[in-house]
Amino acid sequence: MLDDTIDYSLPATIGIQKLRTFFSAAFRLPIFAVLFVDLSERESVSPREFSTAVETRSILMAFRQSALAFAALWQFVMVFTAFGTLGRDGLALAAAVTLVGLSALLARTGRHLDPLISTGMAGTGLWAYLASGDIDSALVFAACWQINFATCLGIILLLRPYGAPLTTGITVALVAILALALPEWGIGTFVSILTTQLSIIIAVRWGVSRLVIIASEADAIESRRNAALQRTRLVERVSMELVEESRMLHDTAINTLGAIADGSADIAGHRYIQEQCRRDVKILRALQARTTRPIPEKLEEIFHQPGFAIRRSGVADDEIAHCNQLISASTIAAVVHVVREAVKNSAKHSGADHVVIDVRMSEARLTVTISDLGRGFDPRTPTDGRGIAESIIGRACDNGFHASIDSRPGAGTLVTVTVPLDQAGTGSGHTEVAGGAKNAPWTSAVQLYQRSSELWAIGVTAVSVILTAAGGTNHHMALFPMITLMATACLVYRFIPGFQYHRLAGVLLATISITVFVLSAAAVEFGSDGAMHWQALASTGPFILLLAITPRRSTRGLAAALWILVALATALVGLSYSATAAQIVLVAGAVGIGFCGLWAMLQRLLATLGREVVRSELEAHEALLQAEVEEAAQKSKQRWMDAGLESAISLLDEIGRSGRNPASQLTRQACGVEERYLRQLVQISPHLVNLSRAFPATLARARHLGVAYFLQLGDVDIRDEETAQSIASYILGMLLKLNPGDELRVSLFPVGDELQLTLVGESITSPDFPFARVTNTQLGAVNLVEMMFA
Q1: What percent of the chain clears pLDDT 70, i.e. is strictly above it?
Q2: Dist. CA 3–CA 657, nearest whole Å
Q3: Spatial CA neighbour of 120 closest among 95, 87, 85
Q4: 367, exposed or middle or buried, with CB in 10 Å at 0-12, 13-18, 19+?
Q5: pTM value?
C-alpha cells in the first residue's frame, strides 16, 4: 500500500535555502557592503610585525575628535534657540542639551560614552520638536540639524557593522514617533525627514569607507616599506655591532700581542703589559660569552691611558663634564675609544715619551687633539688598514663625528677629533627614536585631507540632488542653480589641471560658497517657509574645497569673514519676513560656518594625530628592532665561539698572571703567531653579516689541522644565513680531507648579479647544492671547483 502522506518539509527547506541565497547575494551588493563593513581600526596581529594601521588610525581618530568637538559646540546653539523659542519653559531642555554637550567633551578621552552621544542628541532633538510643535520655529529648525548631526555622529562613532543598522533603526523610530505625535505636519514632512536621514547615513558611511580604503592602501604601502626598512636597519645594526667588536679586538688583544711580538712593549714596562693583558682577557671572554663589555661613560676617560705619559691642556674638568650632557652615550664611548687608539699608536710607533691631549669647546663643537713629537709617518704609506682606517676614522664616521690625521716623517703626528654639540641638551639622555619621531614625515596627511575634502564636496552635492528630487522647498527655483554651482566646484577641482595652485582658485570657491548660501536661503524664502528643508550644509562643499587648497590663515579668515557678513545681510532680509526667520538664518549660518570650522580642526588634527601615531609606531618599531638586534647578536656570539680565541686568551692570561715573560723570545714568537691569526680573523668584514658568522669556524678549523688556508672575500654578503652556513659546512668538510701542510685557497666575489665561490686545492669534491651551478676541473694534482649562485 502506497503512503499518501505529503512531505511539506522539502519545499520549506528549499524555500529557506533560496531565501538565504537571496540575502547572501543582496548583502554582496556595493550599498550593503558599505553599510555593513567593519570600519573599526585593526591593530597588528603579531607583536613581531610592523603595525599596518598608521594612516587609518590617524584619520579615524581625527574624524572622531573633530565630530565630538563640533557636537559639543552645537549644543550652545541648541541652548540659545531653546531659550529664544520657549523662554523659561526651555530650561529643562537646555539642561539636557548641556548634559549632552558635556558628555561629548568627555567622550573625546574614551569610547565608553560613544553610544550615548548620538542617542542623546537624537533624543533632545525629538524633545525640541515636541516642545515647540511649530514647524516654522527656530527651535524646530535647530532640532532638525541636531538630529542630522546625531546621525552623522552615529555613523562616525559606531564603525562596527552594526553602526549603520542601529543608526537607521533609531532614525526610523524617531520619525515614527514624530508622525504619531504631530500628524498635523503632514506625511510629506516625515517622508522628507526620513529621506534626509537615510541620505546622510549612506553618504557619510560611504565617505568614511572610501577614506578608510584610501588610508588602508597607504598603510599597506607604508607597511611594505617599513618591513624592508626594518630588514635593512637590522642588518646595519648587527653589522655595526660586529664592526665595533672587531675594532675592540684590534684595539686590545691584537695591539697588545703585536706590541709584545715586535718588542715595543718593553718601553711601557712589564707591569703595564701585564695589566693590559689581564684587561684584554676580560674583553675576549666577554666577546665569547656575549656579556656586557666595559663602555666609557664620561669624556674625562680620554685621559685614562695607563703605561704612557699624557699631558693635557685646554678646558677644565667642569667644562668637559658639561659636554657629557650634550653628547649621546654612544658618541662619548666612540670618542674615548678613538683617543685611546691614537694614544696607543703614538706609544707603539712614534718613539716619543709622551702625548699631548688638548680639549677645546665652543658653542657648536668639541675639539680634541692628540699630538706627539715623534718620528711621524707618511699617511700615504699602506698600513694594515685597521688602526687608522677603522679604529679612528671609521669609528668616528659611524658615530657622527669627524677625525683626521696629519703626520710627516720626522714631524710628529696630530690627530684631530671634532664632535658637534647639541646645545638643546638632548644628548645622552634621549634615545635615537625620539629624534627620529620628531622629524618623521607623515607623508599622506595632506593627500588624505584633500581626498576627504573632495569626497565631502561630492557627497553634499549628491545629498542636495536627492533632497531636491524628494520634493524639498524650492522657492524661486533656487535649488537648481545652487546644485549647478556645487557640481561645477567639484568638477573644476577634480578635472582642471593646476586649478588647486591658481591664485584665483580661492576667490572662485569663496564666491561659489557665498552664492550657494544665498540661494539655499532663497529656496526657503529666507527662513520664512519650509525652513526644515533648508540645505544649510550645501555651501560647505565648495568652502571645504577652499580650505583644502588654501593653507594660509589670512585667506581662510577673509573668506570666512565674507561669509559671516553675507549671513548677517541675509538675516536682515529674513527679518523683513519675521524675527523667527532672521533667527533661522543665523542658525543656518552657524551650521555652515561652524561645520567648516570643524573641517579646519580636522585638518589640524590629521597632522597632529598623524605625528603622534607615527611617534608611537616608531617607538614600537624601535623596541621590536632592538629585540631583533639582540636576537641576532646572540647568533653572532657563535662567531667568536667558533673563531678559535682560546689560544690567544690562554697566552694573554699567562702573561697577565706573570706566568710568561713578555720579553722572552718564545713569548714574542707565540704572540706574533696569535696576532697574525687574529688579524686574519678581523679581515672578514663585519659588514658581511652572514659570512662573518659562518666563516670564522673555517679559519679556526684550518689552524687546528695545520692546513695553509687562504681566504679572500669580496664586499657582497650572501643573502641568507642558511646558504652561508651550508657553504661554510662544505669548506669544513674539505679541510678534514687535507693533511697538515696542505693548501686550500677559497675566494668569494661578485660576478654580475651573482656570487662566484672558487676553491683550489687537493682532494676537493663537488658539493650537491640545489642553489648553485657547480663545475669541477682537474688541474694536475689540484682540483678547481667553481660555483655560481644568487
Answers
A1: 78
A2: 108
A3: 95
A4: middle
A5: 0.50
